[in-house]
């Protein structure tokens, strides 16, 4: 292998000037591929030949279909960027096809009974608010369950807004997956499950109290016995009662009479 040394750049800055040990001069075009290779964080992982490549064409296309960039696939697959680009064409066409099918999906009809597609609904929401429609961008990639993630980026007063949906091509169904997506198509905000995302190993940790309660046996409810309430009753009528013709009051029942329902034996009177 002949070693070349960098001696400078061309006057227009488009080529590098190189020289070998025998004084032979060479010129190398500064392409986008060269820039991407030099700027990679792991330069040593990008080989100059295909002998050490470890990623198959099928895996390259699977990753591109899932939304990874060509640079990321090249870096992680120990590939040249040119090879990734070589197999990216069909996948990029497929993703654009999915976007077209989603944007042409009929969502509803306007006041004049004219059908409005998904794209029409989004533009009708953004345009009156001063959003430059030419500045919006669409992207999509396939999820693990086979549906497609649709992402729309649009300029707003905070810089850039993002709205997302899930698109099922087989069912021709489109569902918002975030609040912005729901707002753009006038749907309810999708419910988001609340989860701490942390699982503590200690079984007694407060975050795992629900698991502890599920393992406890369920006890039958205990019937509550209500304590009888005693009424205060006088045996001797008051003066006011005598004026009303009351000559006697009911006797206060004993505790045994209340609890067991029978009268206690009266104690003999003392002589």
Automatic annotation (TrEMBL):
<feature type="domain" description="DUF3071">
    <location>
        <begin position="1"/>
        <end position="167"/>
    </location>
</feature>
<dbReference type="Pfam" id="PF11268">
    <property type="entry name" value="DUF3071"/>
</dbReference>
<feature type="region of interest" description="Disordered">
    <location>
        <begin position="237"/>
        <end position="271"/>
    </location>
</feature>
<dbReference type="InterPro" id="IPR021421">
    <property type="entry name" value="DUF3071"/>
</dbReference>
<protein>
    <submittedName>
        <fullName>DUF3071 domain-containing protein</fullName>
    </submittedName>
</protein>
<feature type="compositionally biased region" description="Basic and acidic residues">
    <location>
        <begin position="259"/>
        <end position="271"/>
    </location>
</feature>
<dbReference type="InterPro" id="IPR047682">
    <property type="entry name" value="SepH-like"/>
</dbReference>
């Amino acid at each position: 292998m002949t070693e070349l040394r960098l001696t400078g750049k061309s006057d227009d800055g488009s080529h590098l000037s190189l020289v070998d040990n025998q004084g032979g001069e060479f010129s190398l075009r500064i392409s986008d591929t060269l820039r991407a290779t030099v700027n990679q964080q792991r330069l040593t992982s990008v080989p100059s030949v295909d002998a050490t490549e470890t990623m198959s064409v099928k895996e390259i296309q699977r990753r591109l279909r899932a939304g990874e960039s060509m640079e990321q696939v090249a870096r992680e697959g120990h590939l040249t960027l040119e090879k990734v680009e070589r197999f990216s064409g069909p996948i990029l066409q497929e993703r654009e096809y999915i976007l077209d099918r989603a944007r042409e999906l009929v969502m509803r009809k306007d006041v004049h009974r004219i059908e409005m597609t998904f794209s029409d609904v989004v533009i009708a929401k953004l345009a009156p608010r001063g959003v430059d429609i030419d500045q919006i961008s669409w992207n999509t990639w396939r999820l693990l369950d086979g549906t497609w993630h649709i992402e729309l980026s649009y300029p707003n007063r905070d810089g850039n807004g993002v709205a997302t949906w899930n698109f099922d091509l087989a069912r021709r169904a489109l569902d918002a997956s975030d609040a912005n997506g729901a707002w753009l198509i006038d749907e309810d905000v999708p419910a988001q499950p609340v989860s701490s995302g942390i699982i503590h190993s200690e079984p007694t940790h407060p975050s795992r109290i629900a698991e502890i309660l599920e393992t406890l046996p369920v006890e039958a409810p205990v019937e509550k016995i209500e304590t009888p309430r005693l009424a205060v009753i006088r045996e001797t009528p008051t003066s006011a009662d005598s004026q009303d013709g009351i000559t006697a009051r009911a006797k206060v029942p004993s505790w045994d009479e209340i609890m067991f329902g029978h009268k206690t034996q009266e104690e003999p009177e003392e002589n």
